[in-house]
Amino acid sequence: MNQQPMQQPPSMISSKDLLYLTDMLSWNLNATKKAHFYASQSQIPEIHQALEAACQMHQRHYQQILDHLNSQPGNIN
Predict the structure, then answer these.
(1) 31, 58 Cβ separation under 8 angstroms
(2) CA-based Rg of the chain, rounded to a whole angstrom?
(3) Packing angle of the helix pair 15-41, 45-71 (nearest 10 deg)
């Protein structure tokens, strides 16, 4: 079956979608914390820098998801 991508997000999301969004936030937050922890443990500057870059990337993704959810009409705060 050839499905076309959605042109715009639905006005309401299912509980399954909400659980997936919660998981995505958790995954990014966990990855941010782990990358930062391991960067702080590294004695090799290149490794430290790569892990901090990964930390910042996951932090950006986390914030982008939150910003998108907060910008939707009818959001729950």
Answers:
(1) yes
(2) 17
(3) 160
Band of pLDDT at residue 59, cut at 50, 70 and 90: very high
**Nearest one of 63, 35, 69, 37 to 51, comparing CA atoms:** 35
Q: In angstroms, how far is the first alpha carbon of the chain from the final one?
A: 38
- Whether 32 and 65 have beta carbons less than 8 Å apart is answered as no
CA distance 48 to 73: 40
Q: So what's the pLDDT on residue 53?
A: 98
Which tokens hold the place of 64? 């982008």
CA distance 39 to 77: 34
Here the tokens at position 36 are 């930062």
Q: How many residues does the chain have?
A: 77
pLDDT higher than 80, residue 26 = yes
